[in-house]
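Hi all, long-time lurker, first post. I run a small reading group and we've been trying to get comfortable going from sequence to structure in the token notation. Rather than ask abstract questions, I figured I'd post a concrete chain and ask someone more experienced to write out its structure so we can walk through it together at our next meeting. Sequence below, copied exactly:
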Amino acid sequence: MKRNLIRTGALMVFTGLIVALFFTSCKKEDNPIKFPNGSFPDTGLTALTEINSQYDDYNANCYLLQDNVALIFSSNRGTSGGKFDLIQSSVNFSWNQSTGLFSYDAAISNNTFLTSLLNKANTAGNDFGPYTMFSPVDGYEYLLLASENNSGDLDLYFLKNMPFFSGSLPTITGPLPATLLNTSGNDAYISFNTRHDTAYYSSDSNGDFDIYLQKRPSEMDIATWLSGSYSPGTPVDSLNSTGNDKCPFCFYKILVFTSDRPGGFGGYDIYYSLFKNGKWGSPINMGPGINTQYNEYRPLIGTFSDYTNLLMIFSSDRPGGKGMFDLYFTGTTIE
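-- Answer (accepted) --
Happy to help. Here is the structure in token form:
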């Protein structure tokens, strides 16, 4: 009898442990999201080694394709250092909300739609400075770039298509010359403000490269406007200097560009300006964390959902890369 009581008691204890373990295992886990907002690393530069080559890779632009980020940029890898064409790559940024760790992956890509678009955009000459945007004015996507004309100078061109989601590839129109902007000199590196009513671009029609703007009439769509008769641009005097001022990229009330003006760190440096009281303020050098005695070129900036700081992508021919110009990215905060 005593032995049976001991056995029954042991069984009850064992059963209790099993039940306790069961309910413990079924207990709702703690919220795994400990770092809801991400941050691009801003204490150094990251080279996009996965897509850089031993040749020149620069003039990048982000193109959002469904859930992926495509990076379109100029490279002369296809001609072993000769002619520049636009090529595509994919870059995806990740933020682990449980651990707070940032990561990314990048690779040269071959998206069917972008292949069709870039095949039309690339010419027999050099092709530089891609810029993509969607215009709510007419519902078209635009790719703008600078390509060599018959005289060997750079002219601005554009292509347009209806947005591609899936199914049949949309019809792509172009490249068509942006006759409104093109001069007898070199015209390149176009960018639009957020409302798409002002275009910023570079031209050396008066000697050194300066930054100019043109304002679009509200009743006119992008393609009709760019295809109009030539009209001289307005120099943005608050940005221009005695040096070469190029590659403007506008993001809301921030404009970043590159310049070899006196007082920099050497070569071309990256500067930014803020739009206040109806005009662009005095340019500010991005500092030694970005700029070097070498050339830093064609910056672009933007935001990503759930990230607290800006992403900046640019190119540089500083030592330590895979080739001549290489692509880099970093996080940055501009108040």
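A couple of things your group might point at:
Residues 201 and 274 are 17 Å apart (CA to CA).
Residues 1-24 have pLDDT under 50 and may be disordered.
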